[in-house]
Design brief:
Elements lengths: L3 H6 L7 E4 L3 E5 L7 E7 L14 H18 L6 E4 L3 H4 L8 E5 L9
Antiparallel strand pairs: 1-2, 2-3, 3-5, 4-5
Bound molecules: guanosine-5'-monophosphate (5GP) and zinc ion.
Length: 113
């Protein structure tokens, strides 16, 4: 499968990894839009939130545990951060492997929510 995030998870292409366990890997976004901009992904390929089912729940649990831990490591657990997952055309998803953006290190501008 030609998936850039699977290649990052398999270390076939380099990335700046900030967290890893057997289910999850997190790395710095190549084109950051905030001082802290990290992508958290399951190592197992799944396309998006819309493609999740029960078999992914253990991965999701680990993802949200990782997000908390990364926030502490990055020093943004007190100041706050935003977690975003884009899906599909209207959501603006560019990479079709589920990922959660962590944005922080400055006040993140509001969209409409
Ligand atoms: P999306 O728009 O799909 O939610 O976000 C995809 C994100 O992946 C973008 O913020 C983009 O900068 C990032 N990205 C795309 N290719 C790479 C890559 O090869 N390495 C890293 N570290 N980030 C990438
Ligand atoms: Zn993938």
């Amino acid at each position: 499968m030609d998936c850039i995030f699977c290649k990052i998870a398999n270390k076939e292409i380099p990335s700046s990894i900030v967290f890893e366990n057997d289910r999850v890997i997190a790395f710095r976004d190549i084109n950051p839009v905030a001082p802290v901009h990290i992508l958290v992904i399951p190592k197992n390929h799944v396309e998006s939130v819309q493609h999740l089912n029960e078999e992914h729940y253990d991965d999701l649990k680990e993802i949200f545990k990782a997000i908390k831990e990364i926030a502490v490591k990055e020093g943004i657990d007190k100041t706050g951060y935003r977690v975003i997952s884009n899906y599909g055309k209207d959501g603006g998803q560019e990479v079709n492997h589920l990922h959660f953006h962590i944005l922080g290190g400055e006040t993140i501008g509001k969209l409409r929510c």
